Amino acid sequence: MAAVTAQRVIVVGAGVGGLCAAIGLAARGFAVEVLERAATPGGKLREVAIGAARLDAGPTVFTMRWVFDELFAEAGTTLEAELGLRPVEVLARHAWSAEERLDLFADPHRSAAAIAAFAGAAEGRRFLTFCAETAAIYRALERSFIAAAKPRTPLALIRRAGVLPLLRIKPYVRMWRALGRHFRDPRLRQLFGRYATYCGSSPFLAPATLMLVAHVEQQGVWLVEGGMHALAQALVRVATRLGVKLRYRTEVSELLVSRGRCNGVRLATGETLHADAVVFNGEVAALGQGLLGAAATRAIAPIPVQARSLSALTWNLLAPTRDFPLLRHNVFFSDNYPAEFADLFRQRRLPRAPTVYICAQDRDDRDDMAPNGAERLLCLVNAPPNGDRHRFTEAEIESCAANTFRLLERCGLNVSRTPATTVATTPTHLADLFPGSGGALYGRSSHGWLASFLRPGTTTRMPGLYLAGGSTHPGPGVPMAALSGRLAAHHLSADRALIGLSRPTVISGGTSTGSATMPATD
């Protein structure tokens, strides 16, 4: 009997979503080839070099490990066998001035005690009420939305999750208003409002639903041995063992379409590659902009420029620090939060009073980990997503840097930075790295209660073309991008087996109970 030829799938992009899709498809017997325009895998999960030192330059927080536990199990291995992880007890250290500091812990009762000492006993009690509400939001959405195919309409989500659970998630209430009901201290409102920026959004415009990020972090934050880029390397190792072929420095210029179906790609070199299906793991806005060819513009609805999420201005540094006990994750808050987001979303300019995040990559969650001499730092401030329309000048960047490091000094942290040991990344750089994004790091912003339904799903209007990555459903962030890749593998394999998208599709979650599945196409 003649051997059966495996169906061929091309994955465009070796970001987390693309690599997870490749693993899921290869585990199902597909012949998978991943094409990546950069020299290394990871997409936004990237790193930069300063001399011999390697520094994470993208996402720095590892959460929702159950997503990767399930993925690696599907591939015949375990997360522990492929990646070194250690859970942290202190989630992050926060500062408003040299005298105002607050640590949040994985244990909510420790956090409540810290908040009580910081802002009063009543605020500590309110925090525990807040935790109960964020847990309820997460439970309502985990299996009905986060780990399931995108519902087509709000009514479809109601059918999945039920009316009462969805009423509790407050989709019509803005996050800033909801936080004002929970906390009297404006610093706490500011702290928990920052979770909107994890989705590239403003707490003044995003729905209260995004408060669920607080619960996600309480489920566990892990430090990755070797840095976050080690996750991308681990995904590549597993994919390669399953037979996935990876080609770097390989740019796709066009999606090939025949009789309305996507059936391959054309490379920038002119080479054409044919396939039974294609998974696109790039910025989905690139499709609507025609960056993958005129035919591909029909695949999804165009994404308006004004709907873009936040970008970032970052500095990777090798620098000595003093006078502030940095942990791995640290946040230094602006003294004018409304003005910061007005600058970003209304004026479309670098904030004059930025909030600053620092990942101290040579430290963990203990105070006794201060390194001797220079240490590896990622310093980040939010920026407008207009890198394709505005090329930021040195004067603009240095003005923002002056405001940034002045805030750090006000909070007690002194960083001895030098040009020779600093790598700056602007929205313009990010727009060049991720075509179609304009520098936006999270796809569409999550502004308004309908935002989640406007984000593109796994399937497209074009048969044979599937989407994965942080700009697609279920949303931005490393675990969400991984879930998008797993959903792409589920949908594609179901389609190729002629089962059809009406079959229930859901990925089991880490904290769910029960075994109900949710429909994929409602």
Count of the separate structural domains? 3
Quick one: biggest sheet? Answer: 7 strands, mixed
CATH architecture tag of the largest domain: 3-Layer(bba) Sandwich
By DSSP, the count of extended strands is 21
Instruction: State the low-pLDDT regions, or none.
Output: 499-505, 511-521
Helix content: 25-40%
Provide structural commentary.
With 522 residues, this protein is of the alpha/beta class. The chain folds into three domains: 8-45 and 226-304 and 446-496, FAD/NAD(P)-binding domain; 108-218, no CATH class; 310-433, no CATH class. Helices cover 34% and strands 19% of the residues. The protein contains 17 helices and 21 strands. β3 and β4 form a beta hairpin. α1 runs parallel beside α11 and α2 runs parallel beside α17. It is globular, with a radius of gyration of 22 Å.
Brief rundown of the structure:
The protein is α/β, with parallel strands linked by helices. The chain has helices at residues 16-27, 65-74, 79-82, 108-119, 121-146, 154-161, 163-168, 175-182, 186-193, 212-218, 229-241, 285-288, 337-347, 394-410, 427-433, 451-454, 478-496, and strands at 8-12, 31-35, 47-50, 53-56, 85-87, 90-97, 100-105, 222-224, 245-247, 252-258, 261-267, 272-274, 277-280, 311-319, 321-322, 329-332, 356-360, 375-383, 414-415, 422-425, 465-467. Residues 499-505 and 511-521 have low confidence and may be disordered.
Secondary-structure map:
Elements: E1 8-12, H1 16-27, E2 31-35, E3 47-50, E4 53-56, H2 65-74, H3 79-82, E5 85-87, E6 90-97, E7 100-105, H4 108-119, H5 121-146, H6 154-161, H7 163-168, H8 175-182, H9 186-193, H10 212-218, E8 222-224, H11 229-241, E9 245-247, E10 252-258, E11 261-267, E12 272-274, E13 277-280, H12 285-288, E14 311-319, E15 321-322, E16 329-332, H13 337-347, E17 356-360, E18 375-383, H14 394-410, E19 414-415, E20 422-425, H15 427-433, H16 451-454, E21 465-467, H17 478-496
Helix pairs in contact: 1-11, 1-17, 2-17, 4-5, 5-10, 8-9
